[in-house]
C-alpha cells in the first residue's frame, strides 16, 4: 500500500511539541476527553480490559477511570517512554478477543491503512466489545487549505499538498461496517476556533505536532512570501465583528460493537405481528384499490 504519511516525521514533530508546549494548544484533545467521559456515561456494561490507543495514549485515562466501569486500563502508543505498551495502530500487538474496550483519541486519521486498523481492532475485541474513536475529519482546516492553495497558485502557478485529506463521516460509517462492527454509529462535533491571524493558528498546529506530515509534501523550503500572501487571503475571509478569524475543526466520533448474540437483531421479513396502519390509526388501502393503476416498473 502506498504510504500517505511520513511516520518518522510525525514522531519527530510530536516529540518537538512535547518539548515546547504552548498553553491551550491541546484544546481539541481536552474536548475529546470530556466528550469521551459523557459517552461512557451512557454505556451500561462493565469492561474488564480497556486500551487507550494511539499517539495520545494516556490522555483518555481520567475519563476511563471516572466511568467506574473498567477494571484495567492499558495505554498503548508509539512513545515508549509514556505508555504501558508500545503499539502501532497498523500492527496491533493484541491477541484475538483479548480486549473489552478500545478507545482512540485523535490518532486514526493519521493512519495509512485505516480499514486494516479497524479490522485489527475488531479482531482484538471480545464478543460485545466496544470501540470508541475520535478522528479529525470533514471540513477540518478548510480555511487554511484554501488560503494556502490560492496563494501558491497565484505565486507559482502550481500547488503542493499542505493540509492532509480528512475522512468524511459517511465513509467512516461504511468502514466500520466493512470491518465487521455491529451497531455502528458516527457523528460530528464541529469546533470553531477564533484566531488573531493565520500565524496564530499555525503556532497551535506546531504545538499539536500537527503540521504537514504528507509523504508527497514539497521538499523545497516554503518561501516567507507564500505564507504572507496566504495570511492576507485568509484575512480577506469574513471575520467576526471584533476582527478575529475563524478556523474549523471537525471531530468525527465513531463507535461500534463486536457482534454478539445478546445484541438486538433485526426481525425476519414478514415476521411482524402488528400492522402499521393500526399503529397510525388509519385505514390500509390495498394497492389494487388505488385507481386500478399498477406502479410503473
How are the secondary structure elements laid out?
Elements: H1 7-19, H2 27-41, E1 47-53, H3 61-67, E2 70-77, E3 85-86, E4 99-105, H4 114-124, E5 125-136, H5 142-156, H6 169-178, E6 182-195, H7 198-208, H8 224-235, E7 245-257, H9 276-279
Helix pairs in contact: 2-3, 5-8
Summarize the structure.
With 297 residues, the chain is an alpha/beta fold. The protein has nine helices and seven strands, in the order H-H-E-H-E-E-E-H-E-H-H-E-H-H-E-H.
Total of helices: 9
Overall average residue pLDDT:
89
Radius of gyration in whole Å, from Cα? 24 Å
CATH architecture name of the domain at 7-141 and 165-194 and 250-260: 3-Layer(aba) Sandwich
Major sheet size, sense and barrel closure: 7 strands, mixed
According to CATH, the fold-level topology of the domain at 7-141 and 165-194 and 250-260 is: Rossmann fold
H and E string:
HHEHEEEHEHHEHHEH
Q: What class, by secondary structure content?
A: alpha/beta
What's the shape? Answer: globular
Strand proportion, as a percent range, falls in 15-25%
Level-1 CATH class name of the domain at 7-141 and 165-194 and 250-260:
Alpha Beta
**Count of β-strands:** 7
Distance between the termini: 44 Å
Low-confidence stretches: 290-297
- Amount of helix: 25-40%
Strands of the widest sheet, in order across it, are 3-2-1-4-5-7-6
Amino acid at each position: 500500500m502506498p504510504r500517505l504519511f511520513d511516520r518518522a516525521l510525525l514522531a519527530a514533530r510530536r516529540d518537538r511539541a512535547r518539548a515546547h508546549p504552548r498553553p491551550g494548544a491541546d484544546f481539541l484533545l481536552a474536548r475529546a476527553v470530556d466528550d469521551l467521559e459523557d459517552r461512557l456515561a451512557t454505556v451500561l456494561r462493565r469492561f474488564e480490559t480497556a486500551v487507550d490507543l494511539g499517539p495520545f495514549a494516556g490522555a483518555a485515562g481520567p475519563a476511563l477511570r471516572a466511568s467506574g466501569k473498567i477494571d484495567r486500563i492499558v495505554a498503548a502508543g508509539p512513545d515508549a517512554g509514556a505508555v504501558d505498551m508500545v503499539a502501532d495502530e497498523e500492527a496491533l500487538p493484541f491477541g484475538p478477543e483479548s480486549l473489552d474496550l478500545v478507545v482512540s483519541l485523535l490518532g486514526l486519521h493519521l493512519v495509512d491503512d485505516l480499514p486494516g486498523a479497524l479490522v485489527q481492532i475488531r479482531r482484538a475485541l471480545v464478543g460485545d466489545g466496544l470501540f470508541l474513536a475520535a478522528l479529525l475529519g470533514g471540513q477540518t482546516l478548510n480555511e487554511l487549505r484554501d488560503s494556502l492553495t490560492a496563494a501558491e497558485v497565484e505565486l507559482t502557478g502550481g500547488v503542493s499538498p499542505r493540509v492532509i485529506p480528512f475522512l468524511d463521516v459517511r465513509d467512516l460509517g461504511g468502514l466500520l461496517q466493512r470491518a465487521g462492527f455491529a451497531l455502528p454509529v458516527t457523528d460530528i462535533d464541529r469546533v470553531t476556533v477564533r484566531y488573531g491571524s493565520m500565524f496564530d493558528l499555525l503556532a497551535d498546529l506546531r504545538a499539536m505536532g500537527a503540521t504537514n506530515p504528507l509523504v508527497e509534501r514539497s521538499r523545497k523550503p516554503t518561501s516567507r512570501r507564500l505564507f504572507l500572501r496566504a495570511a492576507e487571503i485568509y484575512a480577506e475571509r469574513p471575520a467576526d465583528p471584533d476582527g478575529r478569524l475563524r478556523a474549523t475543526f471537525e471531530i468525527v466520533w465513531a463507535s461500534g460493537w463486536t457482534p454478539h448474540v445478546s445484541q438486538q437483531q433485526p426481525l425476519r421479513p414478514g415476521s411482524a405481528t402488528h400492522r402499521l396502519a393500526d399503529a397510525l390509526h388509519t385505514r390500509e388501502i390495498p394497492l389494487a384499490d388505488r385507481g386500478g393503476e399498477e406502479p410503473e416498473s
